[in-house]
Amino acid sequence: GCYIGDWTRNLISILERKINKKYIIYLFDANIKVKKKLKKLINNKKIKFNNIALDKKKTKQVFNLNNFFQCSGSSLSNIYMKDKKWVDSRYKFINFFSFKKPLKFSKFLIKTDTIDNFCLKKKIKYIDLLKIDVEGSETNVIFGAQKKLKKIKIIYIEIVENEKKYRKKEKTIINFLKKNGFKLIKKDNIGNVSLFSNIIAKDNIFINKRYF
Fold first, then answer.
1. Signed CA dihedral, 160, 164, 165, 167: sign only
2. What is the pLDDT of residues 152-192, one digit of tens each?
3. ∠ CA 83-88-89 to the nearest 5 degrees?
4. Are 44 and 8 in contact (CB under 8 A)?
5. 78 to each of 151, 175, 183, how far by Cα in Å?
6. Strand 182-189 vs strand 199-208: parallel, antiparallel, or unpaired?
7. Its pTM surpasses 0.90
């Protein structure tokens, strides 16, 4: 999800300074409350906000919202929510600086769609950069883009999983993308996720060999 758009603002500053071409950025977040914080950003006609969750099929699913730290752990996946060490350590830290004690997690239904369907509806012919930061449901997002993969140049994906299952999930994603013409060029461990938790998270950058 895009949350309050910090990464997008940094991307726009690069595009405006260094790349002389037209662009449209599509943002997605299941949490409709972030739209208020995105107000200035989405007033830009080049930025399109979508209150849906991307997945491997079009349906409705339960979304797990982290109320005490919404930018982390909010997902269709329950990986963060189920990790007691991660929840308790972050909750205690946040409460140390807060006068009110928020709920930990709440649930609501959200519409889901696939990248393939979305691109078809919006008549998106190709994607220069696909950034996936969905806190655990990234495999489904990728599987929902099978038809469009040939037209995606770069994929920046955060892979998150319980440490016992991480290697298998990472292998599944890497092998799937390799079979579709992508090469892994960079991998960075996100250390603050693993601190006081049983979760591993890594940022991965893939390039489509058809374009590079």
1. positive
2. 999 999 999 999 999 999 999 999 999 999 999 999 999 99
3. 105
4. no
5. 31, 24, 29
6. antiparallel
7. yes
